Amino acid sequence: MIIDTGDLPEAAAYKLLIGSILPRPIAWVSSVSPSGIANIAPISFFTAVGRRPPMISISLQPRSDGLTLKDTFGNIRDTGEFAVNIATTPQSDAVHRSAYEFEPHEDEFELLGLEKAPCDVISAPRIAASPISYECRVNRIIPVSATENVVWGEIVRFHIRDDLYLENGRIDTAALSPLGRLAAEYTHIENVFTTPLPDETLAALDGARMRRLDGLDSAFSPINTPLWSPSGSTRPAAP
Q1: Can you list the domains of the chain with their CATH numbers?
Q2: N or C end of the chain: smaller count of CB under 10 Å?
Q3: What does pTM read for this prediction?
Q4: Of 65, 162, 83, 178, residue with least CA distance to 121
């Protein structure tokens, strides 16, 4: 299959991107409005940009109507600050529910039952249960279209849970239990290896489907359900 992107609809391009860039790390972004209303959103278009200064990027699409800018972007643009919290598998349901499209006047920490932790130098709160958080100041905002923007954030503080910080300045990644984003689902990252792997291991993995942790059939996809939405913003039930 060869697809020419010249006439590719936006929704189709999005599906191809999220279905092929796998797994994606999740920036669980906390921000605050100029009036003091806290917001949380999971952003899976997220990566490192540079080391000196330490810099990350997040890309923000519009709300499900395809036109309205997300509260997260408005807060970041208006305050110049945000926090990125690293999510773990035990937090996966809260992460997913934080994608729901709440009203701008609603404090999402309260709605999701998440505890706030203060940041040192920015006004936005951190998610207290997150094992790693970054306090970020906006370095630049790069418009991609009228409704999509890339934000570069300079990390001014790292918050790392003590047991994860090793003496030589490394993160104990095997103890982190990181959560990854697939197309419309999540993955628990639990395997680690160096190459080369034994031939029999490679043979067993070649063509194998992923193992599901939720007990559903291996061919299940939420895309085939009536409540699916690309961003996860559709609410299956009240949080």
Answers
A1: 12-224 (2.30.110.10)
A2: N
A3: 0.94
A4: 83
